[in-house]
Each structure stands twice: as C-alpha cells, then as structure tokens.
Amino acid sequence: MQLGLRIVFSVAVFVLVFSLTCVFAENGQEVLYEGDSIYSHITIEHNGNQRCMLFGRYRDKRETCIDLREPDASIFEYTALMFVGFLFHPETKDVALVGLGGGYIPTVFRMHLPTIKLNTIEVDPLVYKLAKEYFALQTTETQAVIVSDGRQYLQKNEKRYDQIWIDAFNTDYIPVHMTTKEFLQLVKSRLTKNGIVVQNVHNTNKLYDAHVVTFRSVFSKVFIFEGKHSGNTIIVGSDNPLFTPSQFEQVVKLGWSVGKNNLLEEANKYVRMPNIRQVNVLTDDFNPANLLLHEKR
Predict the structure, then answer these.
(1) Same domain (yes/no): 274, 190
(2) DSSP string, 44-111
C-alpha cells in the first residue's frame, strides 16, 4: 500500500514538474504572466533579450515586443513605419496614440522625443498595469496614459493634435467602432490645420481594402506605406500635410530621424498606386469588419 502511494506521489510530482517545465521553457520562452482582462486573454513572454505581450489564447502571434537591452530598437516593422508621421509633420508638438500594448512607442518618445506631448489612450487597465510592471513603461511631464476607450476619449475631449496614431487592432479582433467613416471624421475634427492620422493595419485580409476606401471617403490625401518584411501597412490621412513623400528627402536632410529608426528607409516603402479593390465604406450602420478580418485577399 505504501509502495503504491509512493508511486502515485512520484507520478504526481513528475506531472507537476513537467507541466511547469512546459510553461517556463516551451521553445525557450519563459511565461512571466498569463491571465484574462475584461477585454482579452493576455500573455507576457520572455525569450533571451526580448519581452513580448500577446493577446488571445493561441499565443502564436506577438503583438508588441521590446528588446530589454535596446528598448528603442524596433523589433516589428510597423512600429518603425509609424514614425514616418514625422516626415509629414516635422513641427509636431502634440500626439495622441490610441493603443498602448507593451509601450514601445511611448518609450521611443521618452528617449528621443522628450519635448513632444504624448497622450496614450488605452482601454484596458490591465494592459497599462502590465506595461508598467513588465516593460518598464514610464510617464513623464510630457507623457500621459489615459485609461479610456479611444473613440469615447476623442469624443469627450476637444484638444487638437498634430498627429493621431491608431494602433488598437490585433490579428484576431477589431474594435469595429474605430474603423468607421464616422470615427475617422471625429479623428479629423481633432487634428490641427496640418495634422495627420497614422493607422497600422494588416494587408493580408479583405478588411485592408475597406480600411483604405474608408480613409479616402474622409481625407483628401491618403498615403500607403506597405511593409516589405511583414503583412503590415501604415495608412496616413490628411487634408493639408506640411510635406508629402516627394519631399521627404528634403525633410531627412534637415536632420529628421527618430532614434534607431531610419525614416528615409521607412519612407521608401511608400506605394503611390496601391492595388485597392472597390468595396463599401465602413460606417456605424454597416461594418462587417470582423468578418472581413478573417477573409484572405
């Protein structure tokens, strides 16, 4: 009887140790945190010098990562691409960022653009908590994080920005109320005279075409920057940008770069005539965004 109990106990210990080993060493990745917020399932993984925040239960796609040795180095192509906004508006003083993630973009602002005022709007309080705890996110006199829905925040606050960046989407789910013509009209009303909106989207699904068509229904000038090493595209919309892609080399010669991000290299990803299918504009009344998200182009 005692032998049987010892065997059962040994097997239980083995299973426990094996399970922990899988959690902490699967593919060389250490899971620092895993849990549910009111909006998403969130995992924090650590692998070598990289720390990543993942959304969803499959853990097969990293949404935001930081190199702990070089926190201003862009691991993902799209995060470097978003800084082309400063080529359109190098005189920027105020920026709003919708979507925090692990806080790579605010970290670059803190390290290299400390005089620019940055308001980051993040809907999920747990994301903000984890960004501070695991990614060393810091706020400063010029940088604030507001826990709020991005659309509601812009609706309630009439402050105008030189740039509004939207990085609130992931590969599994789209907050549809921030994809519509009405939302972009609201964003436009919160821009300064030469202001721009910069949005990160995925270009491998049918939602991409709808994004671009919807931008074109609101802004007189829409610019597309397609990632060369990823499925990401940056859409820039404006009615009156200070500079356009044909003038970017002139801006770069004036000394515009942002940390380790080579803005001229990113600017060369501009696509003058993108292949966009004619689809319906997304509106508050018509918005199949999450269906289109899962349909390949």
Answers:
(1) yes
(2) EEEETTEEEEEESSS--S--EEEESS-TTS-SSHHHHHGGGHHHH-TT--EEEEE--TT-HHHHHHHH
